[in-house]
Specification:
- The chain contains 2 helices and 11 strands.
- By secondary structure, the chain is α+β, with helices and mostly antiparallel strands.
- The protein has a single domain, classed as Lipocalin.
- It has a 9-stranded mixed beta barrel with strand order 1-2-3-4-5-6-7-8-9. It has a two-stranded antiparallel sheet with strand order 10-11.
- It is globular and about 50 Å long.
């Protein structure tokens, strides 16, 4: 090979990684579809199992109340009782809870400017605006889903969400303030396996960010999301915070 040919081949090879990154950014993977929680057990691939959550580090002034609540929940579980949940109160789970509600799937609808996530439980909807700047937290009206913006980093969708009101329950009831910021890194591990790494950062209540991961498996292609409306609810919460069932004519 002549020196000129060698230089030409070397120049082409040096450009290949750049081309690959550009194509990934301009042609991101399509997340469209209905996804259910990927569960372990027989037949499950261990390499797709969600990694353990990071250690929970709640600031001391909030830790005592959190641990007391967890103790109450543990005692109730031993008695076979269920405590108050958003579902019982007929209110949305909100974000990030809606991303992992029991056996109910979530649907991703993807377009060039927005990714819409629909939770089957309570028909919850969140919108991730692509390639838009995030607003200041104080300028976002607090709500169940906040304001989410996202961008692609290679094959990973990175989202930033602010404006979740403090009454919305996040990971295992971890306390949070109106200053909470949630980051997601969403990517396909395989054509039918989707992973959502969720990081909760709250400078008011947490010593350091909390990260946990949810893994999903694509449902059958013709699955149709079911309408779920909390109507004529017969459950209620008594004065001790225990879920009870209303009895006819009582």
């Amino acid at each position: 090979m002549t020196l000129k040919a060698f230089r030409l081949v070397s120049a082409i090879l040096l450009t290949l990684p750049v081309i690959g990154l550009t194509q990934s950014a301009t042609n991101p993977p399509d997340l469209t579809g209905v996804w259910g929680i990927y569960r372990g057990g027989r037949g499950a691939d261990p390499k797709f199992a969600a990694p353990p959550a990071s250690p929970l580090a709640i600031k001391p002034e909030y830790a005592k109340a959190y641990e007391a609540r967890r103790a109450v929940e543990a005692d109730a579980a031993k008695r076979g009782e269920q405590l108050d949940t958003p579902g019982v109160r007929c209110v949305p789970y909100g974000f990030p809870g809606m991303m992992q509600v029991a056996v109910y799937p979530v649907e991703f609808i993807q377009s060039a400017k927005q990714i819409t996530v629909v939770g089957e439980a309570f028909s919850e909807v969140r919108r991730i605006y692509l390639d838009r700047p995030q607003e200041k937290i104080e300028d976002v009206a607090p709500g169940y889903y906040g304001r989410a913006v996202g961008h692609w980093e290679g094959d990973t969708l990175v989202t930033d969400t602010v404006g979740i009101k403090p009454s919305v329950s996040v990971y295992r009831g971890v306390p949070h303030s109106d200053q909470m910021r949630i980051t997601e890194r969403i990517k396909l591990l395989a054509p039918d396996i989707l992973q959502d790494q969720i990081t909760i950062n709250d400078p008011v209540t947490l010593e350091k960010p909390l990260t946990y991961t949810v893994t999903y498996k694509r449902t059958k292609p013709d699955y149709e999301m079911v309408e779920f409306v909390c109507d004529n609810n017969r459950e209620y919460v008594d004065e001790k915070g225990v879920v009870r069932m209303k009895v006819e004519n009582k």
